[in-house]
Amino acid sequence: MRQLTSLFIIVSLLGLGSPLQAQALNELPEMGDSSSAVLSAEDEMRIGKEMLRQLKANGAIINDSIINEYIQNLGSKIASNIASSTTRFTFFVIDASSINAFAMPGGFIGVHAGLLLASKSENEVASVIAHEIAHVTQHHIARGVEQANRMNLPMTAAVIAAILLGAHDPQMANAAMAAAVGGSQQMKLDFTRANEHEADRVGMQLLAASDYDPRGMADFFYRLQQESRYYESGMPEFLRTHPVTTDRISEAQDRASRYPKKPTINSPYYPLVLARLHLRYSASPETLLQQFKTAIAENKSLNESDTYLLALIHEKVGNIKESRDIYKKLLAQAPERIAFIHGMAELESSRGNHNEALALYRQGLKRYPGNTLLSLALAETLTRQKKFSAARELLQQQLVRNPASSEAYRLLAKLEASSGNSVASHLAQAEYYYLSGEPHSALDQLNIARRSNPQDHYHASRIDARLQQIQDELKRADRLSRK
């Protein structure tokens, strides 16, 4: 059993080199299914964390505070309606223009930037997230491994490989499954469909509980299927990794019609996130700026998100004064928007107006106490002004709320270095590297800290314990790779 789990981990982490969207086998679970005996919650969390670190190390995740906060808040809103779940979900955006989403073990869910840009409403994005959450809550990965364990070892290895191939191409996965099973009736080839239907059903329940219209799921699937004929490279990745048939769409539409219809309401941050992504994937900010100038010259009105995009474009091309003037207007109209507070404060800080930036951040935190985005930005500005004690307190508070915040550790390392605490700086830098998927760099930082003050027995024992922990993890991974 251990060997099978090890094989699963190795192939997941090393064999494919890309996110895993597990597609399991053709059996819906009964209450109290035994999949947790195959892949425990601890196993799934360990695998998911390692996969997330790999994604970060490869630069696959967008490092944008506003986008990250939006997707985490949206996902958490939906996940909060799961009955009796102890899984702590983490949501992130993959830096790719492709249309896709995937779930990893342990509650780690990625949404491609292209899917956000292809969406017509927040309801559609919520429907995809709810679907991926359902893959996690229904233990599809563990169930796949459990089913595979009922076969002999060579067939099991082939089946696990097929499950993983399902993340990329269901037809390839079916071919691998056919090769493994041959003419036997021991397993049906259609091993992805049941999980997709189940994820649709559970996802719709979550959508309804989260005040979204479940029709958004069926509508999004249908629109992607219809529009796929216009994609130059064929159908979107989402349709390849989540096979959508006419029957499945019909079933989803029928199931959604049983729920009360709800109006489509986008949060104010949905169009602002799309604006940031639109600029990110624009080939030429200058061309975008010219398009805005033409629209303004023609007296076309700009909505809030368009105006925000214009401010971002001006900042991108170096027109700081123009960007600052637009932010002033936006804040006058919507002083509660965190994106506007943050954008204006960043501009003030870049111009050396740190007191103005501090005032904006503090005003925002009065409205939103403990907000991660504003707290980290305030801590960074305080560090620039050498107000180390206040900045350190803010960062420590954030790490209590989120111990896995690599950004908080990065800022803490910078703060401690600026204040002359070299050992503390190396320790924080080590955690930043570890959480960013660079364990060997983390070890380097810990060793530097260990040599910095060998007489400090308190820090020495703490450093030694952390060194041992990371080294043990690396040894386990190395042993697994040799089996």
Describe, in plain words, how this protein is organized in 3D.
This protein is mostly helical and 483 residues long. It contains 24 helices and three strands. Strands 1-3-2 form a three-stranded mixed beta sheet. Helix 20 (388-401) packs antiparallel against helix 21 (406-418). The two termini are 14 Å apart. The relative contact order is 0.08. Mean pLDDT is 80; it is low at 1-35, 151-157, 159-170 and 180-191.
Short account of what is shown:
It contains 24 helices and three strands. The protein is mainly α and 483 residues long.
Number of helices: 24
- The proportion of residues in beta strands is under 5%
The low-confidence runs, each spanning 5 or more residues with pLDDT under 50, are 1-35, 151-157, 159-170, 180-191
* Class by SSE composition: mainly alpha
Report the major sheet: 3 strands, mixed
Provide the succession of SSEs: HHHEEEHHHHHHHHHHHHHHHHHHHHH
CA-CA gap between termini: 14 Å
Please tell me how large the radius of gyration is.
24 Å
Share of helix among residues? Answer: 55-70%
Shape assignment? globular
Strands ordered across the widest β-sheet: 1-3-2
Q: Let me know the number of strands.
A: 3
Q: Report mean pLDDT, rounded to a whole number.
A: 80
